[in-house]
Design a protein that fits this description.
Number of helices: 13
Strand order of the largest sheet: 1-8-5-4-2-3
Distance between the termini: 63 Å
Strand content: 5-15%
CATH topology of the largest domain: Rossmann fold
Bound molecules: nicotinamide-adenine-dinucleotide
Number of domains: 2
Shape: globular
Helix content: 40-55%
Order of helices and strands: EHEHEHEHEHEEEHHHHHHHEEH
CATH architecture of the largest domain: 3-Layer(aba) Sandwich
CATH class of the largest domain: Alpha Beta
Length: 375
């Protein structure tokens, strides 16, 4: 006997990204007017650092808009807390506080908060609506857009997660004022990545303005530059995501610099920030691309010079054995059939499409060890 269950999904996961300054009142107004459908209670989730800086403002704005049933949940700041354990604790705390399926969630913070809280929203009560209020340049540049949510495991970063789109994203540039210089640099690495993969003019603009954008000592971001950076990052990321939400091929290009970068991040126990590892990963990718002839020596020099101008690292730390780094690359999500795969630049502002139309190419471990060893 056979019983057929006819279930077809027609999904519209479209959402808006608001880019501006001081967006708490806008966000609160949207919540009051149903941006989180069916939510009678709101979980405001932040790490402890972000909560100490911005939770009061968020709560005040929500209350002023008439949204009173809001509970703040926090966890310690830092990548080492983006774990299944932290997610479980958040879920247990929400359950203990009486949260149910008629809840909504606000992820207030950087990429760690939106990745973890977005994942929790996707599984709590089999899914509750959430929005992201982004407070870091890195999250504005990358993490807040695209709906990838996840936690890290001891094996590697971001392996356990969901595609779960937020109902809206708020990129509040004013919050970048309190970011330490190192975090700004980390965000600039993802910004350079976007320029490298999709926009030669934006790369040129970064080259011209980098001295004003990131002054070497303070890394104080020039006000007008912030808007431009936020806008360009969203434009580039969303244009890729809308064409390949589930990363069947094209979306892999957003992984530029991440094959080596993510491996390094895990191997170093998160001592380096995500963007710092991406910067090193971009340099590794440049060395490979030059060997394979998809970029010129001049292109490579320009990428390295831009990373250097931001004060970002570009070399694999000596204490990391190259063979170990390459072995760790097997945990990369692009790996297929036991082969490590890379996405590579094709000149500045373009990505190489390989034979068969794939944007990634399988590379031998010995080749990778030679190239990285000779950097
Ligand atoms: N989902 C995606 O598509 C995607 C893309 C890129 C990166 N990521 C993930 O994003 C994470 C990195 O993001 P991140 O750099 O925003 O990390 P983060 O959220 O840990 O923020 C970095 C640090 O800055 C602090 N902070 C946040 N906002 C602040 C502010 N306004 N002022 C002062 N301090 C502030 C945080 O407490 C934290 O200590 C990684 O886990 C990475 O895997 C995800």
């Amino acid at each position: 006997m056979k019983f057929h269950v006819p279930l077809k999904r027609v999904v519209d996961d479209s959402y808006d990204i608001a880019i501006g300054r001081g967006l708490f009142a806008t966000m609160a107004h949207d919540v009051a007017h149903g941006i989180l459908p069916g939510a009678n209670r709101i979980a405001l989730v932040a790490d402890e650092k972000v909560a100490s800086l911005y939770a009061h403002e968020a709560l005040k704005a929500l209350n002023a808009a008439g949204v009173h049933k809001v509970t703040l949940f926090t966890f310690p700041a830092g990548e080492i807390y983006k774990t299944r354990e932290t997610k479980a604790k958040l879920e247990d705390d929400m359950l203990a506080a009486g949260f149910n399926r008629d809840s909504g969630l606000i992820a207030l913070g950087g990429g760690v908060v939106s990745d973890l809280a977005g994942f929790a929203a996707g599984t709590f009560g089999r899914g509750i609506p959430f929005l992201t209020y982004s407070t870091t340049l890195l999250s504005a540049a990358d993490a807040s857009v695209g709906g990838k949510t996840a936690v890290d495991t001891p094996a590697a970063t971001n392996l356990i997660g969901l595609f779960n789109q937020p109902r809206k994203v708020y990129i509040d540039i004013d919050t970048w004022k309190t970011l330490p210089a190192r975090e700004i640099r980390s965000g600039l690495a993802e910004t350079i990545k976007h320029a490298c993969l999709a926009d030669a003019d934006f790369f040129l603009w970064l080259e011209k303005h980098i001295a004003d954008i990131a002054s070497p000592k303070t890394c104080a971001l020039d006000a007008a530059a912030c808007e431009h950076i936020a806008w360009k990052n969203c434009e580039i990321k969303q244009s890729v995501v809308v064409r390949d939400e589930r990363e069947s091929n094209l979306r892999q290009v957003l992984n530029l610099g991440h094959t080596a970068g993510r491996a390094l991040e895990t191997l170093m126990g998160y001592e380096l920030l995500h963007g710092e590892c991406v910067a090193i990963g971009l340099a590794v990718q440049c060395a490979i691309a030059r060997q394979l002839g998809t970029i010129s020596a001049d292109d490579e020099k320009r990428v390295i010079a831009l990373l250097a101008a931001c004060g970002l690292p570009m070399r694999v730390p000596e204490r990391i054995p190259v063979a170990e780094l390459v072995a760790k690359m097997h945990t990369d999500k692009k790996s297929r059939g036991g082969r490590i795969r890379f996405v590579l630049m094709h000149g500045i502002g373009h990505m190489k499409e390989f034979d068969g139309g794939s944007y990634s190419i399988a590379l031998d471990e010995s080749f990778l060890e030679d190239v990285i060893g000779s950097m």
